[in-house]
Amino acid sequence: MKYMLMFVGEAEGGEEHMDEVMTDVGAWWEKYSHSGAIVGGERLQPSAHATTVHLGGSAPTIVDGPFAETKESIGGYAIVEVLDLDAALEMAKSWPGSPVVEIRPVWVD
C-alpha cells in the first residue's frame, strides 16, 4: 500500500531543530530509500513561504502565507510503498526529525 508520511513540527524555531538533526534524518531517508520503501518525497520550505488560493468566493483570492494560523506546519513528506499500515507505523516511529508524523493512505481508485 502507498502512504504519505507528513513530518509535522513547530512553525517557529522548527528550522533550527531540523538543521540539528539533518544527519539523522539523512540516515533514516537513506535506509528506507535503499530498501525501496520510499518512492518519493521532499523537504518543504517553511510555511512563511506558502501561498494559499481561496476558492470560496466569486473569484479566487490569493493570499501570501499558510491557510491557517498554527503552531505546527508540515516540514516535509515521504511517499512510501509498504506492505501495510503496521509497516508505515514502524517507519514513522523511527523518524528522527520532527515530533509528529501523520500517516495517510494514498487514494486508490
Describe this structure as you would to a colleague.
There is one protein chain. The chain is α+β, with helices and mostly antiparallel strands and 109 residues long. The chain has a single domain, classed as Dimeric alpha+beta barrel (Alpha-Beta Plaits), CATH 3.30.70.1060. Helices cover 28% and strands 36% of the residues. The chain contains 2 helices and 6 strands. A 4-stranded antiparallel β-sheet has the order 2-5-1-6, covered by helices on one side. Strand 3 and strand 4 form a beta hairpin. The longest helix has 21 residues. The protein is globular. The two termini are 13 Å apart. The model has no long low-confidence stretch (mean pLDDT 87).
Descriptive key words:
36% strand; Alpha-Beta Plaits; two-stranded antiparallel sheet; globular; 109 residues
Compute the number of strand runs.
Answer: 6
Low-confidence stretches: none
Strand content: 35-45%
How many helices in DSSP terms? 2
Shape: globular
For the largest beta-sheet, the strand count, sense and barrel status come to:
4 strands, antiparallel
Order of helices and strands: EHEEEEHE
CATH fold-level topology: Alpha-Beta Plaits
- Arithmetic mean pLDDT: 87
- Please state the structural category: alpha+beta
